[in-house]
Amino acid sequence: MRGYAAEALGKLGNALVQVVDALLLRLADEDSSMREYAAQALGKLGNASVQVVDALLGRLADEDSSVRVFAADALGKLGNASVQVVEALLLRLADKHSLVRAFAADALGKLGNASVQVVDALLGRLADKHSWVRRNAADALGNLGKNSSDVGIAVVKWILQHQDSEYVGSGIDALWELVATDG
């Protein structure tokens, strides 16, 4: 029941101090499903205050992989591309759980940081053994490349270096994301 309450608070789209404080308390709950709901709701609220971002960063190290997934997703939605957030998400690209890696890649794509470090890390995920991770990495590179020609060059180089790899299709997907139009 408390999970539904946390989810409902997030749907309000209202970043009142009382709502945020209630969700931050749930983010520290001993029940992992409560932490999941709270992270998800905080991402929907759009409040990217230091307090919220710091709390979500802490959940990226949660023992429960689902909490890490929702924390990464929320950080991507909040759009805070600080060095601390980007570095924490880069670490999650190496998480032992594929969904965490996938959502970390997605979040990095939303943040717009097309640094060499981010692009190289995402290129590395194009060869992930899980297709969901490869797909999100390709999408993220596509998003980042819309504002940086360096990303396209890096993707083409990656494709040339991996043309005999079973994962070359992921690089081609990323390149497609760079040139595809929305409409």
Plain-language structure description:
It contains 11 helices and no strands. The protein has 183 residues and is mainly α. The chain has a domain at 1-80: Leucine-rich Repeat Variant. α1 runs parallel beside α3 and α2 packs antiparallel against α3 (32-45). The N and C termini lie far apart (42 Å). The model has no long low-confidence stretch (mean pLDDT 88).
In short:
The protein has 183 residues and is mostly helical. The protein has a domain at 1-80: Leucine-rich Repeat Variant (Alpha Horseshoe). It contains 11 helices and no strands.
Any chance you could write out the topology, listing elements then pairs?
Elements: H1 2-11, H2 17-27, H3 32-45, H4 50-59, H5 65-78, H6 83-92, H7 98-111, H8 116-125, H9 131-145, H10 149-161, H11 168-179
Helix pairs in contact: 1-3, 2-3, 3-5, 4-5, 5-7, 6-7, 7-9, 8-9, 9-10, 9-11, 10-11
